[in-house]
Amino acid sequence: MGVVIPLEESKNKLASIKPLVDLTKADMERVNQLILSKAGSDVQMIPEVAEHLISSGGKRLRPMLTIASAALYNYQGDNHIKLATSVEFLHTATLLHDDVVDESDLRRGRSTARMIWGNQASVLVGDFLLGQAFRMMVEVGSLDALDVLSSAACVIAEGEVLQLSVSKNMETTEDDYLSVIRAKTAALFAAAAEVGPIVANAGKAERNALKSYGTNLGLAFQLVDDALDYGGKAADLGKNVGDDFREGKITLPVILAYRRGTEKERAFWRDAIETGNNSDENLEKALGLITKYGALADTIARAVHYGTIARDALAPLPETPWKSALLEVIDFCIERVN
C-alpha cells in the first residue's frame, strides 16, 4: 500500500534510541537489578508472571526518560533509580491489565501472561507490581514525585475506562481519541520525565519543560503505534496487524477514514467495528479505505506535530549529550518500525 512507504523508509533513517541507551546504561543496569529484586515474592506465580513480561524485550524507554531527565539537572544520588523502577512497574502493571481488558493473545511477539496463567493471575500480579511501585516512591521520600506518579496512575486508569466507553462507537471524535491516548499513554511519559527534575531539585520551569516533552512524546508515540497497526508488519509490531480492528478499537486511522468516507463506507465501518464483523476480508477492505483517504499519512503527520512540540519544550535547555539524546528519541518514536 502506498501509504505504508513512509513507515518502511524509516528503516533507512538515522534516528535511534542508542545514544540514550548508551548514556543511561550504567544506571539502567541498576534499575534492572532492582526490577528483578522487587518483582520477587514467596508466592511463586508472582515472579513467574512478572518475569514473563519484564523479560520480553521492551525498550524500557520510560525509565530511561527518568534517568535522563534527572541527569539533565546534574542529579547526584540513588533516588532516580527507585523512581525509574517505579515507572517501569506502573507500565508493566498497565500492560498486564490492558491485555486482560483487550483480550490480547500476543504482547511483543510472545503469548500474553493471561494466555499462560489466566486473567485472574494477570490482574493480581499487576496489582502486586503497582503496590511495589508505590512502596519505592514512598522510600524516595519526595511528596512531589509521589504526587506526580500517583496522579499518573489515576489518569491511566481513567483512560482505560474512557477507552471502554468509546470502544466500538464509530461516532467517537478525534478529540475523544486524543483524550484516551493522553490519559493512557502520554500521562506516564509525562510523569517519567517530570520526576527527574523533581528529584534533582530543579525549579518549576524545568519540571514543566520535561512534563511537556514527555506528554507530547507520548502522544506522538501512540499515534505512530496506532498507524502501525494498519501499516506495519506482525514481526515488527509484536502483535498481529489489525489487532485494533479485531478488538473494535477506535483509533485515529479509523476515525479519519470513517469521517471522510461515503455513507456506504461508513455503514461498512459500523458493521465491522460496532457489530464485530471483523473477518480477514473486512480487514482488507478496512485497509483499503484507510489507504484511500490518506488516514495513515495524516495520523503520522499529527505525530510529527506533537513531536515538534516536544522538541520545542527542550529548546531552552543547554546543549548537552543528554538533551541531544532526548531529542533523537522524538525522531525515533516517529520514524520507528518496532
TrEMBL record:
The UniProt record lists the keyword NAD: no
Q: Which InterPro entries match?
A: Isoprenoid_synthase_dom_sf, Polyprenyl_synt, Polyprenyl_synt_CS
Kindly state which keywords UniProt assigns to this record, in alphabetical order: Magnesium, Metal-binding, Transferase
| GO process terms (BP) | isoprenoid biosynthetic process
State one molecular function term (GO). metal ion binding
What is the protein's known function?
Supplies octaprenyl diphosphate, the precursor for the side chain of the isoprenoid quinones ubiquinone and menaquinone.
Family note: Belongs to the FPP/GGPP synthase family.
Which PANTHER family does the annotation name? ALL TRANS-POLYPRENYL-DIPHOSPHATE SYNTHASE PDSS1, GERANYLGERANYL PYROPHOSPHATE SYNTHASE
Specify the protein name.
Octaprenyl diphosphate synthase
